[in-house]
Amino acid sequence: MKIWNSNLRFNMENPVYREAYDNLHEMDRQKYKSCNHVIAVAVNEYFKRQRQTENDPYFETREREEKFISEIVEAVGKAVREAMPGFMATYIMEKSWGNMPAPQGITEFSDSSDNSENYDDIDFDFAGE
What pTM, to 2 d.p., does this model score? Predict the structure, then answer.
């Protein structure tokens, strides 16, 4: 086993170095057991991304577009899931009762004090057979 030892120095006046230092010293030791491992993964990911960008100048643009598309697909899916019960209820009602014409006009509700109610002008055919 060959181990190479190197020291890291962080200039605390530089915000980039300060943030890196803070992240390393505030990381959850239960989740991340080793600073060495975190640094190695971060360095590898950084250079991997640099090589991808050099080899494919549209890599970042395509990556952003794919993220945007997935957010759109997720939002549309959520909207469809929310609208589906109402759509299905309307579909079932139309199949069961046929197409019902929309009301021609809205009559104004009047608050009359007499309790005599007249149902002669109501068409009860909407209830089916």
Answer: 0.42
